[in-house]
User: Which sequence fits this backbone?
């Protein structure tokens, strides 16, 4: 069954056998064709591009982004932080076409469950100059994609964006084809930045140099790309929902801190990671009471439904806490405040 | 560094360790990995080593080791910080001999054992009835948490009595006793073997002719080279003060990192054998338990690729095992210090692969598991991904498995 080897234009569609050297320093680098390729329903383009942000203190911070060269929205043709979201429907055959530019990169669709070739981890498959990742989501939910080369650095540098999978038939506005429905949605992508890391090269530390990638000391804190001096006003961070209607918050901890979240209103948790609750006998949605803090660690996602019963503003606070000391980062400054406006 | 150089260092460290006569059944390193079940009496020594990290750096560590079975012993690395597998209801006599030059002690999460330190050269026996089924950490609580972080930690796994299942009509093997089982955990174990979980039920013990353990331990920990150097130099490190300056630079699963956490042909025999106790391997439809325990001081955020994973247990404030009554399918699970979570990896097909079984792409499917607080994926300040990462391997479809067994 496993003996016949299939040659695909000279590329063997079998996993590379890792060795000590290929684990990090000399990772497999290839640009193979996609095995078992089907005709796609949707093609998502991603290319690498350097970007720069200006922090509230005036400091210019380099970042690396995926851009969408064919996006109808010109904003996404240039680097943004975080990278442009992907939005697809359950059952679609999706092709993510990566052109890495000068250095190799990968795309790991986190929360999506494809074959090894399409999973984007170099040391068990390959890092790509160019490759088309093939996947077809089987369930709706909130996921993320990111580069998995020298991941510790490339993830921090901004090569990360949301993947939203809508239900097959009802599409946007529904958590699944069987409900529940939401009327407004807000992505809260929490992130932190250590400016020391943002001077590094793509391969920093890969071949054994001690560059201190075990130490992460963030000085900047963002929500959905907005620095925390503007998260009470910027529409990328502030949620808006009419009274009596349901707001879906897609909350992702894209930081390297333990994110302690407090929301001033009851929130029903309808999804954890990429899975909706209540579809099987072994789980069900649950409620987080108003002002009851809860923690999300790196890459966790929660889908929160909020149904405000009166007009006004609801406060939300996110504390970025150190993974060892548990203290709020940057001597207590690692906090994002934002709000939900109920109209 | 070159691999050859690394292997040489490993051999040097082994030679420096305690070489004692064989006292346990030796393992053929290339045999299928099997767990070593300990019960009744167990003699552990506390021993100091200069031990090689994945990049070859020698770091001063303290390990519990099976008496007479340290580095160079018949079970190789399995003799170090051994996983203790015991059956519910048993009484365990664990004798600890302190071969180090500092005082030590012995504790098991959720149990009250004597906290009186064992002086250098001393021996003490701890007798206790094992706690209910689930996963526990044994460790040295003396000068908390310094000695634990220096390496004095291990896993104690309690299994329910033989033939424990969910109630009829499910009758599914399950690693928790009838009192512990929630309706939800029963529903999940009863669902294994058909529908989206087509294949086998979970099985606690493998048939003789099968290769792949379906009950594994991932015990996470970290090493701080600066701390190790201070202790090795005889510095009296005060644990309560030191903790805030903890700066780990090596990140381990069950004591090994990166390349050594999965079975690679060019690993030395002992390392290959040991990796088999970490890396899940099997066919589609062969669900596998993974006992996740964090003996370190970092809050880790473990992430698995290829399958969602089910969190079966947590702990209460007294350290007791709690079987969950709301069981989530996760791809990330948080592991604060001393967290213990039993996870079930269903070993199902990757549901988002539009062609399955694959035709042009070949087995095995390899999927990584790593901590997503990515600083832990480094070794010595760089060297991604030689840290807290392993992978799991799907060798073929369930039909492939049945063909191999002659069932098709």
Assistant:
């Amino acid at each position: 069954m496993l003996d016949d080897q299939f040659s695909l234009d000279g590329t063997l569609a079998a996993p590379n056998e890792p060795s000590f050297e290929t684990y990090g320093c000399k990772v497999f680098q290839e640009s193979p064709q996609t095995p078992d390729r089907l005709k796609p329903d949707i093609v998502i383009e991603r290319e690498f591009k350097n970007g720069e942000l200006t922090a509230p203190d005036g400091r210019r911070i380099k970042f690396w982004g995926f851009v969408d060269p064919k996006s109808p929205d010109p904003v996404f043709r240039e680097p943004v932080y975080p990278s442009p979201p992907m939005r697809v429907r359950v059952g679609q055959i999706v092709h993510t076409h990566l052109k890495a530019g000068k250095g190799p990169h990968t795309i790991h669709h986190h929360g999506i469950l494809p074959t090894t070739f399409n999973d984007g981890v170099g040391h068990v498959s390959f890092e790509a100059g160019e490759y088309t990742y093939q996947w077809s989501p089987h369930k709706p939910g909130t996921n993320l994609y990111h580069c998995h080369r020298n991941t510790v650095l490339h993830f921090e540098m901004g090569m990360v964006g949301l993947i939203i999978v809508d239900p097959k038939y009802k599409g946007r506005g529904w958590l699944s084809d069987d409900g529940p429905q939401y009327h407004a949605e807000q992505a809260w992508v929490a992130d932190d930045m250590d400016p020391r890391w943002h001077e590094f090269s793509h391969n920093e530390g890969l071949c054994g140099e001690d560059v201190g990638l075990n130490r992460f000391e963030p000085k900047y804190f963002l929500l959905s790309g907005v620095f925390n001096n503007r998260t009470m006003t910027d529409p990328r961070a502030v949620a808006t929902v009419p009274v009596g209607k349901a707001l879906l918050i897609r909350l992702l901890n894209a930081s390297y801190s333990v994110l302690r979240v407090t929301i001033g209103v009851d929130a029903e948790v309808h999804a954890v990671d990429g899975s909706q609750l209540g579809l099987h006998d072994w789980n069900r949605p649950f409620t987080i009471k108003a002002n009851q803090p809860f923690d999300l660690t790196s890459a966790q996602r929660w889908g929160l439904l909020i149904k405000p019963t009166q007009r006004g503003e609801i406060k939300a606070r996110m504390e970025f806490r150190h993974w060892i000391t548990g203290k709020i980062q940057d001597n207590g400054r690692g906090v994002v405040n934002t709000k939900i406006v109920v109209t | 560094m070159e691999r050859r150089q690394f292997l040489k260092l490993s051999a040097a460290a082994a030679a420096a360790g305690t070489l004692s006569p064989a006292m346990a059944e030796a393992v053929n390193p290339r045999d299928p990995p099997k767990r070593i079940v300990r019960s009744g009496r167990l003699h552990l020594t506390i021993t100091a080593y200069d031990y090689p990290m994945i990049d070859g750096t020698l770091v001063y560590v303290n390990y519990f080791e099976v008496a007479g079975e340290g580095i160079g012993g018949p079970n190789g690395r399995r003799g170090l910080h051994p996983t203790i597998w015991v059956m519910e209801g048993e009484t365990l006599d664990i004798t600890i001999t302190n071969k180090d030059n500092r005082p030590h002690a012995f504790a098991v999460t959720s149990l009250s054992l004597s906290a009186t330190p064992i002086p250098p050269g001393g021996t003490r026996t701890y007798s206790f009835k094992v706690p209910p089924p689930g996963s526990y950490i044994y460790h040295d609580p003396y000068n908390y948490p310094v000695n634990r972080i220096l390496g004095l930690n291990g896993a104690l796994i309690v299994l329910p009595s033989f033939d424990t299942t969910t109630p009829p009509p499910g009758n599914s093997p399950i690693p928790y006793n009838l009192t512990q089982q929630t309706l939800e955990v029963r529903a999940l174990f009863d669902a294994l073997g058909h529908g989206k979980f087509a294949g086998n039920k979970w099985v606690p013990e493998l048939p003789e002719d099968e290769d792949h353990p379906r009950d594994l331990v991932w015990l996470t920990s970290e090493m701080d080279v600066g701390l190790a150097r201070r202790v090795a130099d005889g510095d009296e490190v005060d644990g309560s003060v030191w903790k805030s300056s903890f700066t780990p630079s090596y990140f381990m699963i069950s004591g090994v990192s990166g390349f050594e956490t999965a079975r690679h042909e060019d690993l030395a025999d002992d390392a290959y054998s040991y990796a088999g106790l970490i890396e899940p391997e099997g066919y589609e439809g062969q669900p596998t338990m993974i006992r996740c325990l964090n003996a370190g001081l970092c809050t880790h955020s473990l992430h698995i690729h290829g399958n969602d994973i089910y969190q079966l247990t947590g702990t209460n404030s007294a350290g007791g095992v709690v079987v969950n009554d709301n069981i989530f399918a996760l791809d990330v699970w948080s592991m604060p210090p001393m967290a213990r979570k039993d996870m079930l990896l269903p070993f199902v097909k990757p549901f988002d692969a539009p062609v399955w079984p694959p035709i042009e792409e070949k087995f095995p499917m390899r999927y990584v598991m790593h901590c997503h607080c990515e600083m832990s994926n480094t070794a010595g300040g760089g060297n991604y991904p030689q840290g807290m990462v392993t992978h799991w391997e799907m060798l073929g479809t369930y039909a492939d498995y049945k063909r191999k067994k002659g069932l098709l």
Notes: Chain A touches chain B through 85 residues (CB under 8 Å).
